[in-house]
Predict the 3D structure of the following.
Amino acid sequence: MADGATGAAIQVRPQPSGFGAEVTGLDLSKPLDAGTLAQVKDAWARHAVLAFPDQPLTLDELEAFTLQIGPFGDDPYVAPMAGHPNVLEVRREPDEKTTPFGGNWHSDWSFQERPPAATILRSEIVPPVGGDTLYADGAAAYDALPDEMKARLAPLRAVHSATRAYGPKSGYARELEVRSMPIIVSPDADKTWAHPLVRTHPVSGRKALFISPVYTVGIEGMTPDEADPLLRDLYAHMTQERFVYRHVWKAGMLVMWDNRCTMHNALGGYDGHRRVMHRTTVAGEVPV
Ligand code: OGA
Ligand code: MN
């Protein structure tokens, strides 16, 4: 498809499961023509986690690419980069003893009324070992559930909150180790917001589990004794190897994932090495 009206052909190489794909044959540092942008968005709706190798974008270019996908999301609890109010730096120094930022399964900012549709992460410095990111496929995990479980989950609303991560009693609030990322602990994080536990993707129409172990604190109308075992079972189900794509970074790689139908988990394993990534989010909609 090399005709000018639809832009140059891009290559989309899906992972064997269809969850996750590598996209090449385009230059994200320049505005994409309408046809190419449509191909990127189509691939994103199909594969949820798109990896674009060899895209060493400047921060300005990262912002400009993000805005082609949609308006910026609202990023609380981490101070943005100087001069770039919509870019967070995900950084860990060689001598740092802290847990990796994002180092437990979660969907980004799922406690917001409108959680981000996309997160875009571009690697700057990649350690020679470790630092992979795991992604779990909430749509395939939902499809694989027995019909009785689907029926049980259909009316449920999960309660999300930033309290465990960023509240005054959170892990970050009590952390003693020096962390290079400017985390903002706030009583604001104790607020809660409920979302459907199974949500429907606005573009693909697929249903997906919308759970986020770091931020999901319960289920409406259930006691913790009822909700906790169910949530634990769903987390274990969704993070089975058959639903997980393991992303191995190289420097100058850009990954764009869909927070509406996936979770992710930043792995460590690179003590003694620096890891630096730059991150934006794209605003999303009220989950339905
Ligand atoms: C994030 C995140 C994962 C990583 O930026 O939201 O979870 O591998 N990062 O750095
Ligand atoms: Mn994250």
